[in-house]
Amino acid sequence: MKNVICNAFAFKEDYLTSMQMGGKTDQKLLDIYMKNIFVSLKSARIQNPQDDVMLVTNADLPEQYQMLFKEHEIQVRIIPYDIFVMPKQFCWSLAFFKLCALHYLTGQTAYEHILLMDADTITMKSYEELWKEADYGVLLYGVGHSLNHHDRQLIMEDYHRLYPEGKSNIVHYGGEFICGRRTELQEFVKICLRVYNTMRDSGYNVSERTGDETVWSIAAAQFGSIVNAAPYIYRFWTEEFYLVSTVTVSNPVAIWHIPSEKKTGFVRMFYYYEKHGAFPDAERAAQMLGIVRAKRPFNRYTLANKIQGKLAAFRKQ
């Protein structure tokens, strides 16, 4: 059986888009999302030509993107958004469509493995190791937040509102990535649905900043086998704070997730592909997406060694 790599995109009138997009979906924002989706799924297809790539959505796409996706073998599945629906005052309400999409993928397809990831991602290498690791459990991305980090605290507070007697230490898993065998993900989705139903039955007694990450994280605490996806995906921030990491070079991950580049870097990447028929190499991609190596002055020790090395080379001439 094949594996499938997916994005999920939902549209609902008067609902907010992601926090990084900062507004309600109009034609301009829809266009940006389509470009992001193309970069995400086309780059995954290039690195994994044996796998299917798919957009799961609840809306008809603009004709130009229907044609573009068909030309590049990106499947489009339109499904109703009728499960995991959140009230529109929640700033991440549309992100819950990822859970709806996963419910569809696990119940209505026959793929061996499923990877669902956000559209503001780009794939830099093959998923060969990722698919193998997915046989050991459901992969979620542990974002590394300590117990007192405000984002993890928000999830913990929601957890205790929903489960007042709960004792679980909730790890913060990001909503940008979930992967596993379809049969295991089916069981995981059932737990996610129980968590969501508890939230709904409470009258949505959670913070209005609550997102799909809350459901993933609480469900993970109730699920048997979770594998940290950090060896395969990394979240870079290029706006709120500047982060330089070795995961692009010495210990490269397959997937870069760069949330603040939806309107900028990913759009540039789309037009780069349109012009060249390929994506740039890792070094050029890092520059375009705002991930570059630190530039700093040489310290005295490093500078002295460089000078001595140049002098030694000169003497040998």
Give the name of the CATH architecture: Alpha-Beta Complex
**Distinct helical segment count:** 10
Strand content: 15-25%
* Cα-to-Cα separation, first versus last residue: 61 Å
The major sheet is characterized as:
7 strands, mixed
User: What is the number of E strands?
Assistant: 10
List the helices and strands and how they pair.
Blueprint: E1 3-9, H1 27-47, E2 52-57, H2 63-71, E3 74-78, H3 97-108, E4 113-117, E5 121-123, H4 128-133, E6 138-142, H5 150-162, E7 173-181, H6 182-201, H7 212-222, E8 226-228, E9 233-235, E10 255-257, H8 265-276, H9 282-288, H10 300-315
Parallel strand pairs: 1-2, 1-4, 2-3, 6-8, 9-10
Antiparallel strand pairs: 4-7, 5-10, 6-7
Helix pairs in contact: 1-8, 3-6, 6-7
If you had to describe this structure to a student in words, what would you say it looks like?
By secondary structure, the protein is an alpha/beta fold. The chain has one domain: Spore Coat Polysaccharide Biosynthesis Protein SpsA, Chain A. Helices cover 40% and strands 15% of the residues. The protein contains ten helices and ten strands. The strands form two sheets. It has a seven-stranded mixed beta sheet, with helices on both faces. β2, α2 and β3 form a beta-alpha-beta unit. α1 crosses α8, α3 crosses α6 and α6 crosses α7. The chain is globular. The model has no long low-confidence stretch (mean pLDDT 89).
